[in-house]
Structure formats: structure tokens, C-alpha cells
Write a structure and sequence with these properties.
EC 1.2.1.97; Aldehyde Dehydrogenase, Chain A, domain 2; 478 residues; globular; Aldehyde Dehydrogenase, Chain A, domain 1
């Protein structure tokens, strides 16, 4: 018997509203209907932006203590309802229930960091008399909110990556309009619910569900929207930069993350960290371990242990406490990964384990000998596939790690401080993790990359800097 749902409402300028048409939200595990959300129209988005204009004025005048209290109450609400939030994530996305619970915990932390950072949006005095023309003048600079922030968020962290945009925006006195991923809108609506419960004034926050082709361009191109904060794919990111016009743009566009394992590394730790980094959330993780460069003397042992741990992964029901990995977000995505692996095999790569697809499920896969001209070697996989390479030394590892158009994060395992510092200096990435895989992040740190991995930095404090402008104040003394 088919599941019947009444459908969620979207959060338009502080009010819960229906749509004239609906989008089905399905569980990627079995295609079952989870819920329905409104398919917003161009007119809905235009109305939302118009309301956000006054919402931005309200937000800018809101005392810092009030911002802190509201964000804190939203975090408390999520924490008190953590299991409901986790179950929603595990239903609409690829994450297992254990992965989903961790995401909920991180979202709570992200909001509490946002509340704390609201009190630290400070300026500095300026010694104007350092210049002859500045003698007799005193002043300072302050940071002011931009106004309206447009946020476009992905499916792979459907709650915490929304919190990473909403928390800093409200902390810094902005209004924000969120367009969540079409396949995972429910978690974003639950975040809106938390802020509604916390007493956030109307028109400051909107979560508008719908298809990007219908409402995305309206949000990106509208002149009243002063910043677009986007997390997603490179092609979409490039399109946004061409359409956005003269406004701030912050982008996290993914990666093809390398990990280097030198012969003096703690192999047990290196293997465990790299396996987890490769297959967390079915590999749909911008920080996910994709390429592992292992120094020749330990390559065979590392490969043996890596394959062994990969084969111990339990793939299946996301709601089971025993499951390590669920499906990809859609069967189409699993087919895409399957095709990339087949291309590599056709060009001479060796399949060490995995390589099997069952609808949206794709088994954790390890390849060796992948040629450099394969898409897997150069592009972001965004799936549960790890590539192992034998290298002669650190020089080769760094050279090959840098030989792609991405640079988000990297990891290196070594006990040699000189080698660690060389990697820090020479790896072309936004973050280097020493004795950890590329898949490490805390929500307070600056997060972002170089090359095609994006523009600007997230992480609460750093997102607030992106979402504010400096204003200089100068007094001429009598």
C-alpha cells in the first residue's frame, strides 16, 4: 500500500506556507516516500526576498544579546529533539543513523559557536596620526551586516551545512534565505522550526523548498541579495559566479582529497583513518579520502590492511545501529560512480575489492594502478571509491597530490617533523591534517580551499567575516 503524507510546509519569511505543487522526498535506500514539500515558484522567491528586505533591517537592529539568546534556544531545541532530527536525516539522505546522530550533535555545536561569536564581532581603533594628513583625527572601524544572504545548500550534510550558513548570518545581524537541496529539504525545515520555536522575529529566516531551475536563479541574480553562500559542485558554482553580479560570493566546491602515508607512519592509525575518511556517508563527502599515496616500503602492507578493513564494512539498512554505510543519494549517482570505476578498469586499473552496485547501493571500492588520464584520478568521485598509489618518496607524493585542479584538504601520516612541515608548505590546499586523514574538521576552524575547491572560508567566525563589511569612522578633533 502506498504511503500517504499530507506534506510539509515551507518557511517563508517566518510563516509556514503551502505550495500549489509538491515535490516528493524519497528514501534513497528503497525509494519509499518520506514526505512532500512545496515546489516554490519564482513568485514565491520574489515575495520572500521582498520580505527579507525588512527582515534585514530588523536583524541589524537586534541587540547582540538577543541574537545570542535566540541562537542558543534554537540549539537547545535541536538537542532536546536530537533523535527526531537524526531519524529525519537518516531517512531523506544517505547517512546511517549513527552518522546522522553525529551530524545533529555538530549542528548543535555550530549554533552554539555562532551564539558565542556574535559577541566577538569587533573592530579596532586606527592611529590616523601615522600620516601627516591624519594629525588631529581619531577613529576606528566596525563590522556591519551585509543585509540579505542567499544560501544554497547540498544534500550530504542536510542539517549542519545549513546551520553553518544560518547561524553566522543571524549572529552577524543579517536576514538569510535558504534554498536546500531538492532531495533533502526536510532537515533544513526542521532547522527553521528550531528558530521559530526560539522566537526569531519574522522575515529574518526563510527556507524555501523547490527546484533550482525554478527559484535558484531568482535568488542568485536579485540585486537585493548581497551575498550568495553556496556549497555544491564546480559546474553549478561557476554558473552562479556568472549570474550573481556585483555581490559577495562564498563557495565550497568539493575536492579530490589526497592522503600521504610515509614509511615511518603508524600504519594502523593511517589505515583506520583513511578507510573511515573514504567511506563516511558513502563517500559523499567533500573532505573524503580519494587518493592515497603510500611510500614504497609500506605500500603492500598498507594495501593489505586497507582492503581488509574495507571488506569488513557493513553496508545496508541505514536505520540499523550495525550499519557502517548506506546507499548513495540516488540510483543515478550510483550508476555514475559505477561508470567512473569501469572507465578506470578499462584503462588498466586493478580492482582490489568492491565494484558492485545494487540499485542506489555501491560497495566500498578500492582500486590500484589508476592511470592519470582517468576521471577518477582527476575529478571528485563523491562516492565510496579510494585509489591507492605507490610512490618512491615525499617529493613524488606532494607533486602528485598537487596535480589536480582541486585543493580543499590533505592528510599526511609521518613521525618526521621536517616531512610534516614540508607538506604544510608545499601542499596546495586549504588545510593540512598531520597524522589524520583529509576527512577532519571542527566547526570552529576556517574551512575552504584553493583552485576549484572554492572561494572564501566557512567555519563560524570566518563565515561571519564573509557576511559582514567593514565601515571606517573618523573624527576630526577641534
Amino acid at each position: 500500500m502506498a504511503t500517504h503524507v499530507e506534506g510539509r510546509k515551507m518557511f517563508l519569511a517566518g510563516e509556514w506556507v503551502d505550495g500549489k505543487q509538491w515535490i516528493d522526498v524519497t528514501d534513497p535506500q528503497d525509494g519509499s516516500l518520506v514526505d512532500r514539500v512545496p515546489a516554490a515558484t519564482k513568485e514565491d522567491m520574489e515575495a520572500c526576498i521582498e520580505a527579507a528586505k525588512s527582515g534585514a533591517q530588523v536583524a541589524a537592529r537586534m541587540p547582540v544579546v538577543e541574537r545570542m539568546q535566540i541562537i542558543g534556544k534554537a540549539a537547545d531545541y535541536i538537542e532536546a529533539n536530537a533523535e527526531r532530527y537524526a531519524r529525519t536525516i537518516a531517512k531523506e539522505s544517505s547517512k546511517t543513523i549513527r552518522e546522522a546522530r553525529k551530524e545533529v550533535g555538530r549542528a548543535v555545536e555550530t549554533l552554539r559557536l555562532s551564539a558565542e561569536e556574535a559577541r566577538r564581532i569587533t573592530g579596532e581603533t586606527i592611529p590616523f596620526d601615522q600620516s601627516p594628513g591624519g594629525i588631529g583625527k581619531v577613529g576606528y572601524y566596525r563590522r556591519f551586516p551585509l543585509g540579505i544572504i542567499g544560501a544554497i545548500t547540498p544534500f550530504n550534510d542536510p542539517l549542519n551545512l545549513v546551520a553553518h550558513k544560518v547561524g553566522p548570518a543571524i549572529a552577524s545581524g543579517n536576514a538569510i534565505i535558504v534554498k536546500p537541496a531538492t532531495v533533502t529539504p526536510l532537515s533544513a525545515l526542521l532547522l527553521a522550526q528550531a528558530f521559530s520555536h526560539a522566537g526569531l522575529p519574522e522575515k529574518i529566516l526563510s527556507v524555501i523548498t523547490g527546484r533550482g531551475g525554478e527559484i535558484g536563479d531568482v535568488l542568485v541574480e536579485h540585486p537585493a541579495v548581497r551575498m550568495i553562500s553556496f556549497t555544491g559542485g564546480v559546474e553549478t558554482g561557476l554558473a552562479i559566479t556568472k549570474k550573481a553580479g556585483l555581490k559577495k560570493v562564498g563557495m565550497e566546491l568539493g575536492s579530490n582529497s589526497p592522503v600521504i602515508v610515509l614509511q615511518d607512519a603508524d600504519l594502523e592509525d593511517a589505515v583506520a583513518s583513511s578507510v573511515s575518511g573514504a567511506f563516511w556517508a558513502a563517500g559523499q563527502n567533500c573532505l573524503g579520502v580519494q587518493r592515497v599515496y603510500i611510500e614504497d616500503p609500506v605500500f603492500d602492507l598498507f594495501k593489505e590492511r586497507f582492503v581488509e578493513q574495507t571488506e569488513s564494512y557493513i553496508v545496508g539498512d541505514k536505520q540499523s545501529e550495525l550499519t557502517d554505510m548506506g546507499p548513495l543519494i540516488t540510483e543515478k549517482e550510483a550508476q555514475r560512480v559505477e561508470g567512473l570505476v569501469q572507465e578506470a578498469l578499462d584503462k588498466g586499473a586493478t580492482l582490489e575489492t568492491g565494484g558492485e552496485r545494487d540499485e542506489a547501493f555501491y560497495s566500498p571500492t578500492v582500486l590500484t594502478g589508476v592511470p592519470d588520464d582517468c576521471a577518477l584520478a582527476a575529478e571528485e568521485i563523491f562516492g565510496p571509491v579510494a585509489l591507492l598509489y605507490r610512490v618512491t618518496d615525499l617529493d613524488e607524493a606532494i607533486e602528485r597530490a598537487n596535480a589536480v585542479d582541486y585543493g580543499l584538504q590533505a592528510g599526511i601520516f609521518t613521525k618526521n617533523l621536517d616531512h610534516a612541515h614540508r607538506a604544510i608548505e608545499e601542499l596546495e590546499v586549504g588545510g593540512v591534517m598531520i597524522n589524520d586523514s583529509s576527512d577532519f574538521r571542527i566547526d570552529a576552524m576556517p574551512f575552504g580551499g584553493v583552485k576549484q575547491s572554492g572561494l572564501g572560508r566557512e567555519g563560524v567566525k570566518f563565515a561571519i567575516q564573509e557576511m559582514t563589511d567593514t565601515k571606517v569612522v573618523c573624527f576630526k578633533l577641534g
